[in-house]
Design brief:
Elements: E1 7-12, H1 15-26, E2 33-39, E3 53-59, H2 63-78, E4 82-88, E5 93-99, H3 102-106, H4 111-127, E6 134-138, H5 141-163, E7 167-168, H6 174-184, E8 190-195, E9 202-207, H7 222-231, H8 239-246
Parallel strand pairs: 5-6
Antiparallel strand pairs: 1-3, 2-3, 4-5, 7-9, 8-9
Length: 249
């Protein structure tokens, strides 16, 4: 079972040294930790029986530490040397990764990166009290992918407007589908919606003012109609039945 080091106690000759030892072990800056002196120690008598100062350092936000610890364990198991930095803001926890072979971490269309992000989110939210949105990124992949999706959405929207036919995109994860929807939300000529179920859920781009399909009206030859009127003038036969029986393709 993984152990997440979010707080530690250190003892040294003075409070400053103890504090620095604790912060170094947690990998935190002082502004990111809560520092408490738990034992002020004692000088003893003539240097005999002296006791050092004990300091407790605790992370203000444990989520970055938990994310870094989990990802480090995963990359160790994969045999990859990856440098991880993680920080939180008001919106999300962002973990940036760098190293060789980042293509393996990204995977095809970001599938591996998305899977790692999902697992990291599960771990972080299991270990913390508040809900945390987790974002994993490497080599600026998220921005590059977003820009590519925005360009794709605009290009396909132009095609839909030009042809008057809807276009169904390949299956995408919820994050990428939101990018498509958001990009075209203000477009007055197309609308977007999702179809199918996960993991095959896809976005459809369709003309916003498309005319509804109207079935073709059956064509009745004039001589057939004249014959019907002559032979069935006094009959109560339903004219709709006649149309069904005598319509020509």
């Amino acid at each position: 079972m993984l152990q997440y080091l979010t707080k530690t106690e250190k003892t040294a000759k003075n409070a400053e040294d103890a504090k620095q030892l604790a912060l170094s072990e947690l990998g935190l800056a002082e502004e990111d930790a809560i520092i408490t002196i738990t034992d002020e120690g004692s000088k003893g008598f003539l240097g005999l029986g002296s006791k050092g100062v004990t300091v407790l350092a605790e992370a203000k936000d444990p989520a970055p530490i938990i994310a870094k610890t989990f990802l480090s364990q995963v990359f160790d198991a994969m045999g990859l040397e990856v440098t991880i930095s993680a920080k939180s803001d008001e919106e999300a926890l962002l973990a940036e990764m760098s190293g060789e072979h980042m293509g393996l971490v990204i995977g095809k269309r970001g599938d591996t990166l998305d899977a790692l992000q999902y697992l990291t989110s599960l771990v972080v939210n299991h270990e913390t009290d508040e809900r945390v949105r987790v974002i994993l990124d490497t080599e600026n992949y998220r921005d590059k992918r977003r820009n590519a999706l925005v360009a794709l959405a605009n290009r396909l929207a132009d095609k839909v407007v030009r042809t008057g036919k809807k276009h169904t995109l390949e299956p995408m994860n919820p994050y990428e589908r939101r990018i498509i929807h958001s990009c075209l939300q203000a477009n007055d000529e197309v609308t977007t919606f999702s179809i199918d179920e996960e993991p095959r859920r896809r976005v459809v781009i369709a003309p916003k003012n498309a005319r509804p399909h109207t079935p073709a009206i059956p064509h009745i030859s004039s001589h057939i109609a004249a014959e019907y009127r002559q032979q069935n003038h006094n009959k109560a036969k339903n004219y709709d039945e006649f149309l069904a029986e005598n319509s020509e393709d």
